[in-house]
Amino acid sequence: MYRLLLKNPLLFTPESIIRKDLLIEGNFIAKIDDIISAEGCDTVLDCHDLMVIPGLIDEHVHFREPGMESKGTIKSESRASVLGGVTSFLDMPNNNPQTCTLNEIYDKKMRAQKDSLANYGFYLGASRDNLDEIQRANVREIAGIKVFMGSSTGNMLLEDDQILYDIFLKSRTLIALHCEDPKIVSTNEERVRIAYHDEAPIYLHPYVRNSDCCIKSTKKAIALALETGARIHILHISTKEEVDLLKNYMFGNVSTRQISGEACIPHIYFNESDYTHKGGLIKCNPAIKFEADRLALIAALEQHVLTTIGTDHAPHEQSQKGNTYFKCASGIPSIQYAILCLLELYKRRELSLETIVNSYSTNVAQRYHIEKRGSIAEGMYADLAILDLGGTHTVTKDDIASLCRWSPFSGSVFHSLVKHTIVNGRIVVKDGKIVADNGGCALVFNR
Prior knowledge:
Elements: E1 3-7, E2 10-12, E3 17-19, E4 21-25, E5 28-33, E6 43-46, E7 51-54, E8 56-61, H1 74-83, E9 86-91, H2 102-115, E10 119-122, E11 124-125, H3 131-136, E12 145-148, H4 161-170, E13 175-178, H5 182-196, H6 205-208, H7 211-228, E14 232-234, H8 240-246, E15 259-264, H9 265-269, H10 275-278, H11 291-302, E16 308-310, H12 338-347, H13 353-367, E17 384-388, E18 393-394, E19 413-414, E20 417-423, E21 426-430, E22 433-434
Parallel strand pairs: 1-6, 2-7, 8-9, 9-10, 11-12, 12-13, 13-14, 14-15, 15-16
Antiparallel strand pairs: 1-4, 2-3, 4-5, 7-17, 17-20, 18-19, 20-21, 21-22
């Protein structure tokens, strides 16, 4: 059995940050103690100047495979993940073909088993005609049910009230939601087309996909959940008004809440002023909005109104991002630099380290009932991100692992770095470089 010893790290444990040795045997954390002998260990990592946190769990990614491999693949995007300390991901269903059947879930798992450096889970997409698949899905083997109440194509955009009601009523696991009202968006788009024709600038995005479209859809989702008893998780909350709505439903802990919400990296790191110099590189749905919204999201994370952080990592070819508004694709690749963004917010005293780790790891494991992941304790899987909080990392094109090879963070200087990443007890990133070809496995959802 492979034995890996971390010497003298600062460990972020559920109780406190402590300086103790950590021994890994096989896939699991075997022992945490003041001094552990290196005798019989295969590898010893000196972590005296480093902090070890639970491997990050990104509940919200679009890795594009199958069907859009020119944008990204499970192999390429999982490499970006582990470079960012992300040891597990939950991938969305809007692929080609869309992941709306259990056979398509199986196909994605087989692809990930072959190529993924990180652990993986997949959402089953809700469509207009797959209620039978939703009802017969094994809830231990899927991340949840993904419902697009806005911003999707084909039969995954669900506007019919009866179909939505039936899905909410009959789903046997967590429903993850994209909430934007398509009719409000369509009306706003038409106004912009009349005023600007095809030359609309990118900075209009938060006015087209405005607060009203998010608020209306989120209210509808909450009402449906209350009527049917469904457990829902509203993804990429982007407005202060939605935060205020969720304050009314903070019942229970992270695992047991009926209604919860997520904040995404673009909405807590950027604001409307960033469209001026980043343009289409930060166009995403829902839109990045205003500084008052960003600050409300930050406060909501600190106050536990929002329980989790995700990235909504969504790569596109760079040729699709530099155009005028209607020709610019929506989506941002961000998973490789997400923890560095969050640590910048920590150093700016906007977010606490506890909130960052809990929201981007521990709470995700609890909300989705992921088995034996999300915290540092004996008996847990050894998924770990090892950070240098005193390091410096400058983003260059050669640094970017995502297949699209661009990032809205290009040129950014971060004042922390991911030193090593461990997945299932094996080092997959060492000194900021990938040193493994695989390592991930299927997540189990303990429901």
